[in-house]
TrEMBL record:
<dbReference type="InterPro" id="IPR010230">
    <property type="entry name" value="FeS-cluster_ATPase_SufC"/>
</dbReference>
<protein>
    <submittedName>
        <fullName>ABC transporter ATP-binding protein</fullName>
    </submittedName>
</protein>
<keyword id="KW-0472">Membrane</keyword>
<dbReference type="Pfam" id="PF00005">
    <property type="entry name" value="ABC_tran"/>
</dbReference>
<dbReference type="InterPro" id="IPR017871">
    <property type="entry name" value="ABC_transporter-like_CS"/>
</dbReference>
<feature type="domain" description="ABC transporter">
    <location>
        <begin position="4"/>
        <end position="248"/>
    </location>
</feature>
<dbReference type="InterPro" id="IPR027417">
    <property type="entry name" value="P-loop_NTPase"/>
</dbReference>
<keyword id="KW-0547">Nucleotide-binding</keyword>
<dbReference type="GO" id="GO:0016887">
    <property type="term" value="F:ATP hydrolysis activity"/>
</dbReference>
<dbReference type="GO" id="GO:0005524">
    <property type="term" value="F:ATP binding"/>
</dbReference>
<keyword id="KW-1003">Cell membrane</keyword>
<keyword id="KW-0067">ATP-binding</keyword>
<comment type="similarity">
    <text>Belongs to the ABC transporter superfamily. Ycf16 family.</text>
</comment>
<dbReference type="InterPro" id="IPR003593">
    <property type="entry name" value="AAA+_ATPase"/>
</dbReference>
<dbReference type="InterPro" id="IPR003439">
    <property type="entry name" value="ABC_transporter-like_ATP-bd"/>
</dbReference>
């Protein structure tokens, strides 16, 4: 089933065109990697999927799970199953992580007409998920992301993802700043959460993460467009030869 269909997406930030015709099709069960140099528009694309207000879409369509994504407010997108793990996760001092996670979880549950969990029930549920991610239960009592190390923030994002069970998870640079153990744990988490009914878009500058999460497709973004799409071997080729190696024929006339 086609989960996400992006056609001719153009978008501006502060009046400057950043995305210049992005096309992407993602089916259920697939993992897609979007690679590309800094400034190519990867994060802009991820934020537009999540509904970030700073970006003005000027042309194109996005169909998500048979719905026009642009008809949905950011919160509605989250409830519909679009999950964006931020490149720089926010800190929320004074709100314990378990409160924050339970609120997020119950909001989605109630939207789907499902039972909300009280603190004790949620505690059991979240601890199970944390075992999967090899996370210490100490995490639950700390303020959201406050004083978390880079690796802890990333693991906490994966925990949110494990709780919310999104249809489409978008991980933007989830690998940056992770040591090899944290990278492995995050990758294991993503791999365990991937199934035939959901899909993952990994935005990454480096191919390192792709040693642990094997994508079905690798796309290269350049100057606001996807200029090349291939299988997992493309990531290795980019690692070995750099982005300049891509044939200029792939670049069209930009
Ligand atoms: P990537 O994630 O591939 O590094 P980004 O999407 O972050 O690329 O950025 C693409 C381009 O858009 C860059 O030139 C960046 O400076 C510009 N850009 C992104 N967000 C903003 C913003 N809020 N205001 C101004 N320029 C922006
Ligand atoms: Mg960047
Ligand atoms: Mg980015």
């Amino acid at each position: 089933k086609t989960l996400l269909e992006v056609r001719g997406l153009h978008a501006n930030v502060n009046g400057i065109e950043i995305l210049k015709g992005v096309d992407l099709t993602v089916k259920s069960g697939e993992v897609h990697a979007i690679m590309g140099l800094n400034g190519s528009g990867k994060s802009t694309f991820a934020k537009i999927l999540a509904g970030h207000p700073a970006y003005e879409v000027t042309a194109g369509t996005i169909i998500f799970n048979d719905q026009n994504l642009f008809d949905l407010e950011p919160e509605e997108r989250a409830r519909a199953g679009v999950f964006l793990a931020f490149q720089y996760p926010i800190e929320i001092p004074g709100v314990a992580n378990n409160q924050f996670l339970r609120l997020a979880y119950n909001t989605v549950q109630s939207q789907h007409g499902k039972e909300e969990l009280d603190p004790l029930e949620f505690d059991d549920f979240v601890r199970e998920k944390m075992k999967l991610l090899e996370m210490s239960p100490d995490f639950l009592d700390r303020s959201v992301n406050e004083g978390f190390s880079g690796g802890e923030k990333k693991r906490n994002e994966i925990l949110q993802m494990a709780l919310l069970e999104p249809k489409l998870a978008i991980l933007d640079e989830t690998d940056s700043g992770l040591d090899i153990d944290a990278l492995r744990i995050v990758a294991n988490g993503v791999n365990q959460l991937t199934n035939k009914d959901n899909a993952t878009i990994l935005v990454t500058h480096y191919q390192r993460l792709l040693d642990y999460i094997v994508p079905d497709y690798v796309h290269v973004m350049e100057a606001g467009r996807i200029i090349k799409t291939s299988g997992k071997e493309l990531a290795k080729e980019l690692e070995a030869h750099g982005y300049d190696w891509i044939n200029t024929d792939d670049r069209g006339n930009t």
